[in-house]
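Journal club prep — side note

Before the paper discussion, L.F. wants everyone to see what a predicted structure for a comparable chain looks like in token form. Sequence:
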Amino acid sequence: MPSPEQKQKKDTKPDRTLDAIGLYCPEPVFRTKEEIEKMEIGQVLEILADDPAAEEDITRWAKRTGNQLLKLEKDRRTLRFLVKKLK
């Protein structure tokens, strides 16, 4: 049986979606930063990207900026991130 934290992460619905498909480093991170600045603390941003560098870039960005990476999914060439705004 999944823990409450695992269930919460699975059931998290994004408040906004950023489509960064077709954008390459550093655009996905810049757009993520711009989008998260428009959001309220506690809201979740979904980022869709197909740049392989985005996996490391967005993961590091979230840690560096004090936001929480809730989920990272890979589906062939597409990456899907869920980032919760904490600051």
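L.F.'s comment for the group: Helices lie at 4-11, 27-37, 53-65. Keep this in mind when we get to the figures.
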